[in-house]
């Protein structure tokens, strides 16, 4: 999607795509590795979504192949974008996994790691604000950088939640399960909860 988005602007060679993605901080939202990008370009060409339109050589530099998007690629991009906007994806972020594992660690250790996460989040939020300030100065239309606005909001929400968790653990509003053993913990799945609700309604 990131490659096809760039090719809406003009035909490009993979090196130019990589440089533009880094300049625009696309690597904040997709994993960007030159090797994988070249592999993806080859795959897109094989699927008929892009095609070679030119080759360029400057001095002794290696020849560069320039790609443009095909009509099939343009249609596929539009369909995929519509689906991704409309349908929430089942994603697997690491933080919930780590929170689930936290009770198996020492409470003081977990508190230290949560405080470190809060520090890291504040640093990333500050970096976001630098980028947003820059695009505002350049008077770029908001929809050209809307993904940065979303990520910035998401990080601020995560920081607020994490800071509240730290405060709740420090105050004792959330207690550490030192005394409870795993086999003593209640097991209540979403299905169980739904069945109980349905039973009460009936």
UniProtKB/TrEMBL annotation:
Annotated InterPro entries: Tscrpt_reg_PadR_N, WH-like_DNA-bd_sf, WH_DNA-bd_sf
SUPFAM superfamilies named in the record: Winged helix' DNA-binding domain
Pfam family, one: PadR
Domain Transcription regulator PadR N-terminal: 3-78
Region spans: Disordered: 177-202
Domain of life the protein comes from: Bacteria
Ranges in a coiled coil: none
PANTHER family linked to this entry: TRANSCRIPTIONAL REGULATOR YQJI, TRANSCRIPTIONAL REGULATORY PROTEIN
Protein name: PadR family transcriptional regulator
Phylogenetic placement of the source organism: Bacteria, Bacillati, Actinomycetota, Actinomycetes, Pseudonocardiales
